[in-house]
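ingest -> fold -> write
write: protein_1
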Amino acid sequence: MSHQKRDDEHGEPSQVVAPADPNEWSGEEGRRYHIMARGMDIIWGSDERFWKWHRLPLEELREHLSIDAENRSCEIAELNQVSWLEATKTLDLDHEKYKKVFDGCESCEILYNIKFKVDAFGWHGVPVTFQVNTPNPDEGYTRDERLESYRKRCSGWQQIHGGQFKVPKTEKKGNVKFGMYEIKSQRWKGGILLAGVTLKLHKSDTTD
């Protein structure tokens, strides 16, 4: 399908307009950027033995995660069980879409939107690794955290800190890849809902 706009006066293409990504959008006056689970790379995500996909009511997104998803069809990933957990996202900061997202942005905090079911299992004593790789190897981020405390703390949606990165100032910015992993223990685990991630953008005039 063509996404070219035509100049009404001359009948010639004026510019190419990229189609909107239904799984990603900006919110809260450009201070948040939401990436739903469908927009992430989830190992075994297309195999229903391991992951299932559900529509998430928009009012639940808005009320519990402050995500305004009006006129969108949002899906979340429900983990049945896996022994290899890997959910990642790569951002090409040189892509026009992300140039606009990170324009004037100094740094970015990554928040994973997760909910534990009452029958969640396999998380006790198993650290999950949150990792961020940036164009500058010296600015990478890795943290191991046991998620059992989150499961005990709350039965609703929670935002779990998954790292941060500085937005490169150079003209050629490169890729940022972030993800959550549990691939060491080989223990079976399940019972979480993943609604994706929210990127909290810290701009030059941002104080929070």
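write: protein_2
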Amino acid sequence: MTAAPEDRENLTYSLFGDAIRDLAQTVADDGYLPDIILSVARGGLFVAGGLGYALAVKNLHVMNVEFYTGVGTTLDMPVMLPPVPNVIDLSGAKVLVTDDVADTGKTLKLVHDFCVDHVADVRCAVIYEKPHSLVKCEYVWRHTDKWINFPWSVLPPVVSRAGQVLDA
């Protein structure tokens, strides 16, 4: 199932820069000073890097979670892929979990629940949040119900790999 172009939100790299600065300002205005930014790979890596610079946080971690297999197609449940962060590295910290979008919210819920019993505080920051997301993020740049064309995933890869879905 492919969404028609008019049913899509289009984020450019330039607009992404504005989104990150706005999102960082929202976090700062809230007085939240995270010790760690935990990005959900892959889309959350871009958000984490930008927020890391804007919020002066150098301690960035990555959690690789697989859920989407194509446009509008997912696994039944998100799956953590190795290497899974050691909870001792997160112990007692204020953690900001980042992703590009809270769509179903299942991925963010998995990561949030992984952290919640081990950290001092965990909050989520995303560029986009959809109305049906299970997780209501503390920090959101925009709300939308459209499919999002992100600048890092709108074009096909320059290489093909076995089993990779190239149709977006």
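write: annotation protein_2
Residues 27 and 125 are 8 Å apart (CA to CA).
The chain has one domain: 5-142.
pipeline exit 0
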